[in-house]
Model the fold of this input.
Amino acid sequence: MEKRRTVPVKLAVESDDAALLEDTVDEFLWAADYVTHHAFEGEYVTTSKTTLHDGTYEDVRDETALHSNHVQAARNKAAEACKSVVEKWKQGKKASMPHFTSPHLVYDHRTATFHDEYVSLATVDGRIETDYVLPDSERDTPHADYFFSDEYETTGAELHYSNGNWMLHIHCKLDVESDTSKQDATENGTVLGVDLGVNNLAVASTGTFWTGDEFDHWRREYENRRGDLQEHGTRWAHENIQSVGRKEEGRFKITLHRISNELVAEALDHGCSVIAFEDLTDIRERTGASWGHKWAFNRLYEYVEYKAAEYGITVEQVDPENTSRRCSECGFTHPDNRESESFECLKCGYENHADYNAAKNIGLRYLRRNQTGSGGGAPVGVCLNSGMVNANGEYEPPAEDSARAGVHAESPRL
Ligand SMILES: [Zn+2]
Done:
């Protein structure tokens, strides 16, 4: 069970940063409008997030400088607004195509980092850091009760601009977990499959994506700076190259620690008792990853392994053969099933993001390898965005109506 709260916090935004936020909000609203127009183009209004994603994601990435998670958040906003229009029509009420005007912007834990006294926010041009303006007395305010409480976890926020103020509405949640549900998770859990790659550093079978953008950005920056220094050729420059190297390595590690924390949280959130990765030995040959990527994958694996252990979650590697070519729905394996980021099964027509299909296959491979048929602590299925698939490929919808809205939701096969 979860308790959710929203805490409004005023931000002290400096003028340069305000200009960046304004640009980001403008692009975010433009993206939401763009997706809405797309949704209204056909004979019927499209409300499926997956369909809208496929139809607009590339365009919005091309036309804006938004962080990929902002692009997704704008698409979700649009999909929800379109859905509510369709609902009104169904009830015989009037409603017209939504248009986004009120200045706001949705942040999640990949576009915002919440610190004790300030927040770091992604914009169309890198990140900005801005201080909170907190009430004088923190006692008996929601800030003290939720935001600064160790028990509550910050899940995201919505940035609003009104009456000359930047306000962050921070979402917090408290997991009210009973001991029995924890036990269930380890005794009869599910597998979280994780695919590692270059475009997306990690993709989980629950449909959560961790992009490689940040990693690529730093790697390029590092290469550039090292190139500049090498031109000088002095001893001073040589020493600087080494210190730039150490600094960059430190920054990569911070990102990898964050991703590993989020992966473990994802497993915990979904009651997974195992996190399955593909075997990393020949990952460069398979994926065309650079040495830098291989270094990152190995670090990420190590971090996830020791962090997951604290929660009794096992981390395993499985045989990677054909995980990207095999259809996670019908098992048909063919190199032409996959074309860069899209997977479309030539046999059954199953379509999804290629990395997501691979993450499902990795989870399924673990499950089949370890199937004992007698429970006995063995996981019973692969955890998906919504529901679960067992070793026989049978889909089970979620037990409660706790289905998560996400990018690559599975549609139950009816
Ligand atoms: Zn298939």
